[in-house]
Amino acid sequence: MEQIIHEHGLWPNTGLSIECTGPKCPLGLASCYCHHLLYSQPNFMLQKPLLQEYIESCGHLCDYYLKYHCELNFIKQYWGAVKLWFHIAGCAKTLREMERKMLRCLDDIPLEQI
Which domain holds residue 15? Predict the structure, then answer.
């Protein structure tokens, strides 16, 4: 990291630590340590992940959701509703019956709920 920062002329005269030494970095200070300095650079922030570039180059949309925010993720909401309908539908006696029940539950969730 130090080499990259030097090559781009961003290394401060006072030096820079590899990791943050305090419990929280000062608000608005993006250069308190190497990671912050690199991650705050415009060319780094604007670079899309390779997977996203590939998906979009194939003509598809790529949308990332925030981690640990299941209330914002429609897939989690959909799956939760399906599990509830599956539970309400009762027991299945055979594997084939369970598969039919699962497919029916997947299809029965209204799009508005998702």
Answer: 2-47
Number of domains, the chain: 2
Listing DSSP states for 9-63 in one string gives: T---TT--BSS--SSSPPTT-TTSBHHHHHHTSHHHHHPPPHHHHHHHHTT----
Residue 29 lies inside a defined structural domain of this protein: yes
Cα-based angle 63, 77, 60 (whole degrees, multiple of 5)? 25
pLDDT along the chain (114 residues), means of 10: 81 73 59 74 84 94 72 78 91 92 91 76
| Residue 62, domain member (yes or no) | no
